[in-house]
């Protein structure tokens, strides 16, 4: 099977060049960089094996990745048994780690997976990228600065384990499963689309499997969430959509189970 890696850049060429991860990955896998804004392409042009999609700007995270998925199917020959990886431009991962991940997923028939992200190159500080499904109170407490009890303690997990959801900074899907889910919900512009797709997957009995021994570095810079910021507005809007969608999906599944399906 083949591996296809989707990277969405919002003027991220500087960090992409700094990490210099994509050229190495493109030697073994299909790497597609989707530009969401006009940006300098001199770095990308050095590596002819990189696929650059330079169109349809200022659209959401999910919409961008869905476009890449469609491009992989229509133009690069992606097959149902192949793997589709959503990778943030500020994540550094090696070819070996991805190869090992795909091998584990194939061996254990895993349809959607997540890995162990760290905040530093020494792999000493965990990124809080694996969590339980949140309820409204969890969002409120987090915004008020009281912490987030949904964060999973990675130090306690030593082997592949089912989790509720993992951050979209790195998610991997078997191609057929991504298609079955309909990809990301494009009504989310930013925030919660990763929770949503993981929840929808769990509703069809394909939960996220977290692989603690597959490691990568996520050099995240969190956006401003002040009350007057657009990021706060996007976040609140996404929270409302997620909570309403979750309620609807849960009710629908309950009705189907009562009817004997």
Question: Key features?
Answer:
alpha/beta; Spore Coat Polysaccharide Biosynthesis Protein SpsA, Chain A; globular; two-stranded antiparallel ribbon; nine-stranded mixed beta sheet; 261 residues; single chain
Explain the overall architecture:
This protein has 261 residues and is an alpha/beta fold. The protein has a single domain (3-258), classed as Spore Coat Polysaccharide Biosynthesis Protein SpsA, Chain A. The protein has helices spanning 13-19, 22-26, 42-45, 61-75, 95-107, 136-143, 175-181, 193-203, 230-258; strands spanning 3-9, 30-35, 51-54, 83-87, 91-92, 112-118, 130-131, 161-163, 165-166, 170-174, 208-218. The strands form two sheets. Strands 1, 2, 3, 4, 5, 6, 8, 10 and 11 form a nine-stranded mixed sheet that branches. The protein has a two-stranded antiparallel sheet with strand order 7-9. α3 links the parallel β2 and β3 (51-54). α8 packs parallel to α9 (230-258). Mean pLDDT is 91; it is low at 254-261.
List the helices and strands and how they pair.
Layout lengths: L2 E7 L3 H7 L2 H5 L3 E6 L6 H4 L5 E4 L6 H15 L7 E5 L3 E2 L2 H13 L4 E7 L11 E2 L4 H8 L17 E3 L1 E2 L3 E5 H7 L11 H11 L4 E11 L11 H29 L3
Parallel strand pairs: 1-2, 1-4, 2-3, 6-11
Antiparallel strand pairs: 4-10, 5-11, 6-10, 7-9, 8-11
Helix pairs in contact: 8-9
Protein name: Glycosyltransferase 2-like domain-containing protein
InterPro entries: Nucleotide-diphossugar_trans
Organism: Vibrio hangzhouensis
């Amino acid at each position: 099977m083949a591996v296809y890696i989707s990277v969405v850049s919002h003027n991220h060429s500087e960090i992409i060049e700094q990490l210099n991860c994509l050229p190495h990955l493109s030697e073994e896998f299909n790497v597609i960089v989707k530009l969401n804004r006009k940006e300098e392409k001199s770095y990308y042009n050095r590596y002819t094996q990189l696929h650059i999609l330079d169109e349809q700007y200022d659209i959401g995270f999910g919409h961008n990745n869905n476009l890449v998925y469609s491009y992989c199917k229509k133009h690069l020959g992606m097959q149902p048994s192949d793997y589709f990886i959503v990778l943030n431009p500020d994540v550094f991962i090696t070819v070996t780690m991805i190869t090992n991940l795909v091998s584990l997923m194939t061996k254990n028939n895993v349809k959607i997976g997540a890995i162990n992200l760290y905040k530093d190159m020494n792999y000493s500080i965990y990124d809080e990228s694996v969590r339980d499904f949140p309820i409204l109170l969890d969002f409120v407490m987090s915004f008020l600065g009281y912490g987030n009890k949904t964060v999973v303690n990675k130090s306690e997990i030593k082997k592949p384990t089912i989790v509720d959801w993992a951050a979209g900074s790195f998610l991997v899907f078997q191609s057929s499963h991504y298609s079955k889910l309909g990809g990301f919900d494009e009504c989310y512009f930013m925030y919660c689309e990763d929770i949503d797709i993981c929840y929808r997957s769990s509703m069809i009995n394909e939960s996220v499997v977290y692989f603690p021994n597959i490691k990568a570095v996520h050099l995240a810079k969190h956006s401003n969430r002040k009350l007057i910021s657009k990021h706060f507005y996007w976040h609140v809007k996404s929270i409302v959509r997620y909570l309403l969608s979750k309620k609807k999906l849960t009710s629908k599944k309950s009705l189907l189970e009562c009817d004997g399906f």
